Amino acid sequence: MRALAIAAAVMGCITLAGAPVATVHAAESPSVLEGRLILLDPGHQLGNSNPRFAGKLGQTKFNGTTVKGCNTTGTATNAGYPEATFAWEVARVLRRMLEDEGARVALTRSSNSYDAWGPCVWDRAKQANRIGADAMISIHADGSSAGNRGFFVLVPGLVKGWTEDVVKPGRRLGTSMLRGLDSAGATPSNYIAGQTMVSTNTTGLNFSNVPTVTVELGNMRNRADARLMSTPEGRKAYARGLLEGLRDYFSRG
Known about the structure:
The protein has helices spanning 54-57, 83-100, 121-131, 167-183, 203-207, 223-229, 232-251; strands at 13-16, 19-23, 37-42, 60-62, 67-69, 104-107, 135-142, 152-156, 196-199, 212-219. It is an alpha/beta fold. The longest helix is centred in the C-terminal third of the chain and has 20 residues, at 232-251.
């Protein structure tokens, strides 16, 4: 089992569990991310569990294959660290990394608050369409059995009239996310074959008209994953893996 790399740029050195494993030299040419418009979608919202918003969260829409709800509360570690907070904090770190490379970054929510809700998952995808994002990354964590561990991605399946335009680029983006997280030393899922789920009923994927994936960075019910998710260093390493995935995607055309 590999621990997630605590990826830090210290004299150009990336570390894996504290040991130097690679040297990164400053790029002499512009980053492949320069000028790209990336929509980061930190899953859920703390206020989704607030009873005041139950009516709003109860909205439903048909997503091409089934009727699903607006949004959910998400999961949490056994110690109570919420998925909504984890996703928000990873997104904030990743935004800074992307902006440092010249990317333009938008987020699907502007806060992480018990006094806010949503937005609904279909509105998050519609935001990507509206702004013409080059890619949308939906950041999540799983709440599976305690023995399950590691990252995986959900990519769009073919839903006629809905996803024909995003299946191929979405699957390429998913493959790049796997490469990026693997290069950062993240632990691949031990319970999802090939670390990839092809989904035809994920609302955010179905409503999107831009390359979109949902990344489950780990399992919050697994002790080792939860420990990493609960630390600033761990969240920075997850963000580094997503950054590497985006670099990989845009470097391949």
